[in-house]
Design goal:
globular, 17 strands, binds flavin-adenine dinucleotide, about 25% helix, about 325 residues, 5-stranded parallel sheet
Length: about 325
Amino acid sequence: MSKKVVVIGEAREGSLRNVTFEAIAAAKIISDGGEVVGVLCGAGDLQESGREMVYYGADRVVTVSHEELKTYTSEGYVQAVHAVIEDESPEGIVMGHTSIGKELTPKLASRLQSGLISDATEVVNEGNSVVFTRPIYSGKAFEKKAITDGITFATIRPNNIPSLDRNDSLQGEVTEKGVEIKNIRTIIKDVIRKSSEGVDLSEAKVIVAGGRGVKSSEGFKPLEELAEVLGGTVGASRGACDAGYCDYALQIGQTGKVVTPDLYIACGISGAIQHLAGMSNSKVIVAINKDPEANIFNVADYGIVGDLFEVVPKLIEELKQL
Ligand code: FAD
């Protein structure tokens, strides 16, 4: 049965995050031929970003532009998105399972008296219900869930549901809705970014991660070079962060970021269960470790037993020749 599905878009520094396009693809599956309506909040002119959502498959987009929405606050965004949802009365809502998605969607679900399936890695429309697959027990198992009553509301994990191909000839209206944003009790004075460069870890296609085996912040240099050659970004284990070799913004794992890149290269990481919780669903895992018994080899597709300071430069050299 076709449904109207709202996709909550997310932009960072003026650019839409890839997971927005993946959410549109998920919304298409849920809608089963129904209408997919994008919602975009921010300040200034959001027309261009709205159009981009159309190019990736949204049938139309509603933007809410307001000075109070310049920087994300859940108070402001809940009011804006809720106003659009009230107008649209959708049967489904999808958003990326990002830091913002994780905070905004439960608040919206509570306002809408709706259920919420979070962190879905797969969406299948089985005709009479939409079934979501999501990891449980820190990624050690998966469960399948469906919402049988009310709004089908879900967040999707970045990098798992492929977005549709961009088609700039797609036509769809981008309209602006005026919403009165009031009673904001949070004032954002400044946003200080810890890692200003590189690709966002949760959306990266290639991650070269370093652990305590990297031994120093200087030791991360070859990993940064390898990441650059592969067009990826650098991540880390908590061991490396705790040792002060890198910033906690790079931490991957149970208490860090959850990532699912196409390629994950673990260098000098033992493979503790808490680290695996954040990366074991990567599509291809390569482990470089001098201990052949290291647990990381149990989840690796390819293992190299050796000293990372010898192996990584060799890899860089070979890759540069391709
Ligand atoms: P180690 O376990 O010390 O491993 C270093 C590895 O480097 C070893 O396998 C060694 O053989 C190898 N090595 C050393 N030198 C070289 C070399 N020259 N070349 C190649 N290999 C070399 N950890 C996370 O990563 N993320 C989390 O989110 C996280 N959350 C946690 C939450 C809780 C509640 C707890 C209790 C722990 C958490 N941890 C987390 C910590 C986790 O248990 C491990 O302590 C941590 O992952 C170990 O980091 P590591 O693999 O870098 O270090």
